[in-house]
Amino acid sequence: MQTSQSSTAQTLLSQLETTPEWDLSDLYQSFEDPKFQQDLDRLTQTAAQFRDTYRGRVSQLNSEQVLAALQELEALGQKSGYLYSYPSLVFSADTRNTEAKQFLDKVMEALTAIENQLLFFDLELQQLDDHKFQQLQSDPHLAKYKHYLHRINEYRPHKLSEEVEQTRNQDSLTGRQAFVQLRSVHLGEQEYQPVTTPDEQTAATEAELSALLFHPAGQVRHDAYKSVRQVLEQHNSLYSYILNTLCQDHRIESQMRGYRSTLHKQLLADEVSEPVFQAIMDGTGSRFDLFQRYYRLKGEALGEKIRICDIYAPWTTENGQQLPPISYKNGVETLLKALEQFDINYARRAEEFFLKNWIDAKVRPGKRGGAFCAYSHGKHSYLLLSYTDDYNSLFTLAHEMGHGLHFAWIDDAQSYFNSNPPLVLAEIASTFNELLLLDYLLHNAADNTMLTKALLTRQLEDQLNLLFRQSTISRLELAIHDRAAKGSFDRQFVNDKWMELYQTLCGDAVELLDEHQFDWARIGHIFFKPFYCYQYTASNIVSLACYQKYREVGKDFIPGYLELLAAGGSLNQVEALRKYVDIDIEDSTTIRNALTYVEGLLDQLQATL
């Protein structure tokens, strides 16, 4: 076994000299792959057959027949996922690839038509009388679909007729989804004013410029910050028009379906109660003093007031040097060692991503900004990021790998309908991975005071981001969706509200630059899916609770944690957290403990100054 592991490690190391581009061949070989069109044709045919077999008959099916139908639907959903993933991933890696864009449009149109063929099944289930539906929910043949049926039941008051549902799906292609794609395409086509560092390195892509926000030179940070926001300012009217249109579409849908608001619609989808959402917003809103205290300390250490472009500046440049870069190869080795200390099998599953080229980490023009994990049920996940040889990139890799490992455990245990975890659960493994990496790095940096301080402050800045910046984004969404309920808004409304909210967060601790008013347009989630970002806050709170339990209990924590990951979407997330790791997100103490954890880190930091 030791020899095999050593051989595997050598194979892996030989592949890591350069940042990789992913290999998508286990989806399809290329757009010319005949299997692509064959699968699409076969899927269309199978969906039509399913409709012919079951439409108008769902109320007559017994539990075994409902089970068979659900399994057929899962197979259709899985294949749809493969067909969507391939062009979507190619396009994300290069938003200037017109062929990928054309294929993505073609597939989305075809899959929408297929989805419309299948809409009837859930609708007919929802039309069952209460007694019949409850019989299905309690039938042992359908035990593994119990939560799935519960979710269908929750949507019963908000579903429309089949004809209207089909129209909504079709309209999305040239409506909501088209506007989301427009923003992605437009951003991908932008050119940025290059910034050259004192050592003659030039950054010109969004990823490279964002990495310069960690540079020790204040002028470099300022120039990099302005370069990105100048593009956002130039297109401020366009992005605000897109955002307003999307918000109006959500408003119209909420009214059609009988939701009280867009927030109500989204919380139902997220399986989060309004009291929990409000507790998170109130809890974080009551402790802006932590954010302000940290940046006052940082300003004192740097000898100048922190500007918004300086919030990621290094605390120290010992002997005039910034933190050394960390190459992709060294980053991967470091991450795998950190995961091995948690659990060897967990680390081996992570190693597979590198051995099989499931990661695209190369920096290049036209690549979608940010990072993500895309999961295909029955196969595996693909990770996208732009690795820029720094610790921030390493933590991003750890974060996305957490998602990939989460889905690996789900794939082992769950069928398609149970494979999508609620979003609070979906972010736990990613944050947990970052905490594992942090502890490993701190342990190995015991004699390196510069690195130790940099890692501690990075952790604090991550916590402040997750607890306060992400919840501030949701405060912006509360404002714009409330405004959309009364009528259209323009760019000035969004710009002013964003600055107002950030001023409240920052107080007098951070100076806001004028360009910050345009910064909201960088936040993809407010376009892709409303009220996504508070879930980063909620999930971080739960992740901290999990990690504190792990440090208290040790290895005995691991089996329950892995069962939590494997549960996917098969249980209500509040129930799953209680069952597997004994954490109650409905208890306000859980929120207070997370904020107290951050306060403790601040105390530790202040003691070293």
Describe this structure in words.
This protein is an all-alpha fold. The chain is 67% helix and 3% strand. The chain has 26 helices and 7 strands. It starts with a helix and ends with a helix. Residues 1-5 have low confidence and may be disordered.
Outline the low-pLDDT stretches.
1-5
Q: Give the strand line-up of the largest sheet.
A: 4-6-5
Number of helical segments? 26
* Sheet with most strands: 3 strands, mixed
In which range does the helix fraction lie? 55-70%
Q: Report, as a whole number of angstroms, the end-to-end distance.
A: 48 Å
The count of DSSP E runs of length 2 or more, i.e. the number of strands, is 7
Radius of gyration: 24 Å
- Global morphology: globular
Beta percentage is under 5%
Classification by helices and strands: mainly alpha
**Average pLDDT for all residues:** 93
List key phrases describing it.
609 residues; mainly alpha; three-stranded mixed beta sheet; two-stranded antiparallel sheet; 26 helices; globular; disordered N terminus
In short:
The chain has 609 residues and is mostly helical.
